[in-house]
Write a structure and sequence with these properties.
The chain is globular. Strand 4 and strand 5 form a beta hairpin. By secondary structure, the chain is of the alpha+beta class. It has two domains: about 120 residues, Phosphorylase Kinase, domain 1 (2-Layer Sandwich); about 230 residues, Aminoglycoside phosphotransferase (APH), C-terminal lobe (Aminoglycoside 3'-phosphotransferase, Chain: A, domain 2, Alpha-Beta Complex). It is built from 13 helices and ten strands. The N and C termini lie far apart (about 55 Å). The strands form three sheets. It has a five-stranded antiparallel beta sheet. Helix 4 runs parallel beside helix 10, helix 6 crosses helix 11 and helix 9 crosses helix 11.
């Protein structure tokens, strides 16, 4: 079955076959589907649309609405995304381990990934009944505790996992090729944005960003040592839905096998204004550590968590520079995103992370 390249190419006939193949439609058929794009300006790699579906015949199990995620329609972006494998990775997370993750994720309705053709599509549960986190406004401490408990459950489930070690398709700092590619990507991104965003960086961050580039591989490599686990890799409020008493994770394009504190640093640093983050940070670190222990993790000290957390902030720096290099600076949301990303790097100075960069 050909893979649509845009939401406009998704016909009722195509969606009928997809939902039947995924086990979500009986003998009925899709009568009509209409899409509206969502999430504009939040990224460059994906096109995300919500579809409202009408059926005829037996459609008791079929969703009245759904979300479709596919690569950007921009051919240069599609080529770049295919080269680095973002959609291949996300599709494999959903199809190979999604049901076993141990935390709530959108239900997968259909997936197709053709690496040779560079064509991908995910049809997912619509989470419009839940509340999306607000990346600009930040979150409350109570919401942060719920997210951190959720991360601890996820990480504990896959802690030092033989299954993940065998999943060679899952990237991370234990993989020398991944480290080299990450280093090249960071250094290329920094060259493109250093003059533009360097002067806007909080005090001390520009110097760290400069010295980190040539030593990225050596700085990040310890994050791949055991005990590694499954990390989301992009755990920010824009990828979190709050529904009743659960937190739902979306977007697994940056999933990896790494130290769990990488997710923790990513979430905490970018979810609060700086002073509020400083006020509650150590309390939230302790909450995560205690939750890990309740989930059965032992032999991992609090001091080791703190060092992993500090080192994880360099992954934040890497993600920020690469994201900024690909943002639409001409849009209001693009500028707001730059401000959020830069704000989230202040912890590198607060925690003296430069000390971890090898000489």
């Amino acid at each position: 079955m050909p893979v649509p390249r845009t939401a406009d190419e998704i016909t009722p006939e195509w969606l009928t076959v997809a939902l039947r193949e995924g086990g979500h439609l009986g003998s009925g058929a899709v009568k009509s589907v209409s899409f509206v794009q969502i999430g504009q300006g939040l990224g460059f790699a994906s096109s995300i649309s919500r579809g409202i579906v009408e059926y005829e015949g037996d459609a008791d199990r079929a969703p009245a609405s759904l979300v479709v995620k596919m690569p950007s329609a921009d051919e240069s972006v599609r080529t770049a995304v295919n080269r680095v494998g973002l959609f291949q990775l996300e599709a494999r997370v959903y199809t190979e381990i999604g049901r076993d993750l141990g935390v709530a994720v959108p239900e997968l309705l259909f997936a197709r990934a053709d690496a040779t053709a560079g064509e991908y599509i995910l049809v997912l549960e619509d989470l419009s009944d839940a509340r999306l986190g607000d990346q600009v406004a930040g979150c409350t401490v109570e919401e942060a505790r719920a997210v951190i408990e959720n991360l601890a459950r996820l990480h504990a489930r896959w802690w030092d996992s033989d299954r993940l070690r065998a999943a060679r398709w899952l990237p991370g700092p234990a993989n020398a090729a991944w480290l080299r590619a990450t280093g090249r990507t960071y250094r290329d991104g920094w060259r493109r944005v250093s003059d533009q965003v360097g002067p806007r960086m909080p005090a001390g961050i520009r110097e760290i960003a400069e010295s980190f580039g040539p030593r990225l591989e050596q700085t990040l490599q310890p994050l791949g040592e055991q005990p590694a686990t499954f990390i989301h890799g992009d755990c920010r409020l824009g990828n979190l839905f709050f529904r009743a008493d659960e937190v739902v994770l979306i977007d697994f394009q940056l999933a990896a096998f790494s130290r769990g504190a990488v997710d923790l640093a990513y979430f905490i640093q970018w979810s609060f204004p700086v002073e509020r983050r400083r006020q509650y940070e150590k309390e939230l670190l302790r909450a995560y550590y205690d939750a890990l222990r309740r989930e059965g993790v032992d032999g991992y000290t609090y001091d080791t968590l703190v060092e992993d957390y500090r080192r994880g902030m360099f992954q934040n720096l890497t993600t920020a520079i690469v994201a900024i290099a690909n943002l639409d600076f001409g849009s209001e949301i693009g500028q707001a995103t730059v401000d959020i990303l830069l704000r989230g790097l202040t912890g590198l100075v607060d925690w003296d992370c430069a000390e971890l960069i090898p000489e």
